[in-house]
Amino acid sequence: MLPEDFTSKLGAWDPEKGWIPVTYHDCFQKQSISGVNRILIASAGSTTELVAELLQFLPQPYRLVYLLVTPPDGFEPKKYEIDGVTTGQIKDLFERYRPFLESDARHHLWIHSDGGKGTIICDEHDWIYMYGNLDAVEAFLLEKSFREEMPIIPFPHLHNESSANDETMRSLLGHFPWTAHSVSNLG
Question: Residue 107 in 3-state DSSP?
């Protein structure tokens, strides 16, 4: 179990130091999964800041999805959705909830572009999956000195799902008039 004051989404075991934060290099890998092309991105910096920058490659408005994968006591796994969200509203959400979004691994964020023109997914490992406008995204990442290589998640690792973040999660769920849908296929 991670210490209660742990501030990283993931902890990796170090035999000398105990649980330490998982960090990444700025890197990406082009992938094709079942014939669908995407770019997997890991960042040494702020994931939410990078996602906010990537929004420039997808037209707005967006459908924003907060997928609660590992709920705290009193909650169930749910998909919280809202349509018609603008870049400014997403950036505001990120500013208000950045420490929570970047330190708690109980959720995924999905941002779907209007008309199916692309999607950005940020998962519980702080990996970003980019679908749509991939040539421009690759050029952007290379310009920012990202290396083309597969990010690595160390083993063993633990996901930070601290009860200290429960109140912030409740506040985030009150930020928009989300529509909540039960999900049953989370494993």
Answer: strand
- The secondary structure element, H or E, covering residue 47 is helix 47-54
Interacting residues of 135 by C-beta distance below 8 A, sequence separation 6+:
none
Tell whether the model's pLDDT for residue 69 goes beyond 80.
yes
Task: Please tell me whether residue 135 adopts helix, strand or coil conformation.
Answer: helix
- Give burial (CB, 10 Å; 0-12/13-18/19+) of 126: buried
Q: Identify the DSSP state of 24.
A: -
Rounded distance between C-alpha atoms, residue 111 and residue 59, angstroms: 11
18 CB contacts (<8 Å, ≥6 apart)? none
d(CA 152, CA 56): 27
User: Cα separation of 110 and 58, whole Å?
Assistant: 13
β-pair type (18-21, 128-131): unpaired
pLDDT score, position 186: 55
